[in-house]
Amino acid sequence: MKNRGLNEMIDADDTSVFRDPIHGLVLVYPWERKLIDTEEFQRLRRIHQLSMTYLIYHGAEHTRFGHSIGVMHIAGRVMEHLRKFEPLKSLSENIFFEKKALVRMAALLHDIGHGCFSHVGENETNIYPALSDPVSGEMVSGHEVYTRCIIKEKLSKIIEEFWPKSAERSMVEDILMILSQGSSDPTYRFFDDIISGQLDCDKMDYLLRDSHYCGVEYGVFDLDKLIHSLRVAEFDGNHILAVSQNGIQAVEEFVLARYWMFIQVYFHKDRRLFDYYLSSFLKNYLQCAEGKTGKYPEDLDKYLELDDAKIERAIRDYAKRNDNSEICYFANRLYKRIHHKVVFDPPYVHYNGKDEEQSDAYHRITYVNQNIRKEYANSRNVYVDLAKGSTAKHIFDIKIYTEESDPDYKTELLLFKEMPAIPIISKHDGSIKPIQDYSFTLRSISDRKISILRVYAEETEANELQKKCINWFTVEYTTKIAQLEEAKEKKAKLKGELDKTEESIKKLQEDLNASDS
For residue 307, what are the domain limits? Predict the structure, then answer.
């Protein structure tokens, strides 16, 4: 297949069409179909997109399989749209098709390394071991490095069967660079943005897909208008994904959709609790089985044997043992859907100790949290959860991809530059500015992290702990603040008296010294 031409590669007889509940008919090219048919990709049918959210929103049974195909489809649409603009506009049909195939494959494979129940255990229990990253060579943990390892070690032969490696190009290496946000060619830096960025195809698909399967409208936005508004802009020598000024409202809707989905679905009080149970169960399960390390296997074959179905069977088996072990405790919670009750749920979505308006609420909540952790340390009966997430980034750092062949290239040069997270291209002069310069809506929530604190307790302790939390948050904190202010005033008064006394002593000492002379 090394010499296949463009027409032969996209023969209609070779292509497949999938019917997707979000995007309708999705065209699948032969190399994509062959990747989809692998065991590694088919495993994604058994990895739930939203962990155990189906215990709250019963329709949320969808998986990473459909999501990955959806992201691939959107990435293809974005590339076709950006074909109208440079640098893609001037490419030959063959070269453009190759670039589109690259981005579509990166999109298709971006989640292939996900662990059981998707993101569960990535932060809370640290169940991901450090692996050697095939891109950087560094030891890295998380599902992303599994993704890159699987592509490199398991799927590269299929990719190179259709897109042979040459002196000018390695499709496998280019896919890995995009997925590590490290594209070396500044001309196509925006490929990274298409896969992972503020306006990436991943978010475009999961917001619509999660909304559909959860039966909510929070994540719905105008996908067609958003794609139509995308442009490529040059910033410090890099081509980056940007938005035309006419697309500001489409971006506002998109960002707010994500904001609402985090608050209403991803940070739902019961979903957060079941994630805690599940991550705790997984940690215990990996200590009892699968190498007994408390972490996922480093061996890719063993890692790929793990999926949601296997963990669900383990949950059922441990739940039926009915002993007092920690693993059985969490298995029972999940299998029988018995959970703690929320006893304290402050009505704050954002709070920050550095923000003057939010400072009082922040310190009150911190005081409650400290008291709970002190009084109920290591207790299964009480759980404190702090759900965090960013809303709309205003500025973030990107690497300057300086050509190493440049004679002026210096490793000690500044390697990072600030750029708008969502760049808007002015329709008047072509200048690039952050969307917050145009949007009051996004400016008002930018750089404000979502921080939702909840306290959960067993039903037997719920009423008592609820009273304590309310008392800590209101009466006790207010009383201690008043006592602190009173103590400060007393200290200031005593200091004043002490200063006067010291002054008197100093004066008397001076008088005595004068009389001696």
Answer: 270-390+454-479
